[in-house]
Fold this sequence. Notes:
One of its GO terms (molecular function) is ATP binding. Pfam families: Usp. Belongs to the universal stress protein A family. This protein is of the alpha/beta class. The protein has two domains: 10-153, Rossmann fold; 165-300, Rossmann fold, CATH 3.40.50. 38% of the residues lie in helices and 20% in strands. It contains nine helices and 13 strands. It has helices at 27-40, 52-59, 67-91, 106-113, 136-144, 176-189, 220-238, 253-260, 284-292; strands spanning 16-19, 44-49, 97-102, 119-126, 132-133, 148-153, 165-168, 193-198, 206-207, 210-211, 244-249, 266-270, 297-300. It is elongated. It starts with 15 loop residues before the first strand and ends with a strand.
Amino acid sequence: MTSKQDDPHRLATAPIVLGVDGTPACAQAIRWAARTAARRGRLLHIVHALDLAATRALLGSYDVLVPSVVTAMHDYAEQVLVAAASLAREAAPEVTIATELTEAGPARLLIEMSKSAHLVVLGARSDVGTSRHLGSTLLKVTAHGHGAIVVVHDTDVDVRDGAPVVVGVDGSPVGEPAIAAAFAEASERAAELVAVHAWSDIDEGAFAGADYLRLPIAALEPAERTLLAERLAGWQEKYPDVRVTREVVTSGPRRILADHSATAQLLVVGSRGRGGFRGLLLGSTSAWILQRATCPVMIVHPA
């Protein structure tokens, strides 16, 4: 287990970083980040990135931009930050806010800031039905960021105090940071923790890292319940105030976690699945959940 001294994300000085782009999709994320920062006594660092390099490429010039264009971009960016700060104070009057305007690219900036942030928070737009629009910046940050990245959709419910925190447990060591973050969040929120472990690998002939065909089918569920208990045991000792409900299911994790998101205040998943492949920095389950969940989703990266 990582101590606060070893984990930069848990230092008292670590801010909650909020990336804003001026679109309505950010509103719920601003409210969520402001309330979270206020409850935890952390600085809310609101960032807007102009990405002048992309603008130069779009306008066909890599060397210069017309000064009036740059001025107009800066003026608009300042308005974005003022509006975001105003909405944050409206949601949490006691929150401490810092704003930052930069000409850097947003994805690279937020990935770098995630190394020392308590959380990085991003807003996402919901499209018609269950489909979600996930922009390139969001996908890059959730895939390549450090620590915990929280995505708040514009249709997520505003407040669900008292609802549980739900964590997807895949049973592998690579999922340990997600469990740690879920316990910490449940403790901070005085919430129940629902730990969901799904038999998600059975269709691929692997079961918790082993060939399931070599195991008696009747022994699978007790074995997985034991595995889940072992994964949670040390964290339950560290967070005795957190009431834990364990859930082991035979179907894949995607639909189960999406269903839980309808009544959860936060859904926590690891950035990669059981295999933990370095090349697959955002696992298929995590990416699917980002599209379908109806509460804020926290993607937790291993160190």
